[in-house]
């Protein structure tokens, strides 16, 4: 029996980010890690990521903004720490959405226009193939 891990891409971004910013970040993640199963975002940043999810037929998991500070991240952004209470919004969101036992596959990536960040967490496998 083998199980299939679920890969969840978490996003963080600046107000001026566009759908193209997120699209480019997702493309980088797919190139590096393979197919992504779900997208994740905080409640406050939800609309743009939901648009991305619709374009790619991917479920979007929404996590509470207040939970970000509870997550240990690989990246330590001073701005993110001050604004959101975490070293990386993208990494924290991915971990929260992936649930207990999740692990980051690497540090966040930054979109080419530097307006969006994204990270991938591997959730515990939920199915048997």
From TrEMBL:
Upper taxonomic lineage: Bacteria, Pseudomonadati, Pseudomonadota, Gammaproteobacteria, Oceanospirillales
Domain CobE/GbiG C-terminal span(s) in chain numbering: 7-121
Membrane-spanning ranges: none
Source organism per UniProt: Halomonas casei
Domain of life, source organism: Bacteria
InterPro entries named in the record: CobE/GbiG_C, CobE/GbiG_C_sf
Classification via Gene3D superfamilies: CobE/GbiG C-terminal domain (3.30.420.180)
Pfam families: CbiG_C
Protein name as catalogued: Cobalamin biosynthesis protein
């Amino acid at each position: 029996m083998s199980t299939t891990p679920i890969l969840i891409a978490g996003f963080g971004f600046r107000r001026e980010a566009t759908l193209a910013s997120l699209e480019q970040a997702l493309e980088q993640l797919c190139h590096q890690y393979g197919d992504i199963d779900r997208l994740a975002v905080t409640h406050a940043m939800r609309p743009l990521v939901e648009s991305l999810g619709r374009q790619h037929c991917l479920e979007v998991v929404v996590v509470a903004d207040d939970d970000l500070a509870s997550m240990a991240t690989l990246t330590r952004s001073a701005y993110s720490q001050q604004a959101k209470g975490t070293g990386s919004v993208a990494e924290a969101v991915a971990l929260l959405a992936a649930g207990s036992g999740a692990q980051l596959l690497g540090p966040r990536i930054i979109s080419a226009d530097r307006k969006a960040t994204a990270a991938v967490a591997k959730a515990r496998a939920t199915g048997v193939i």
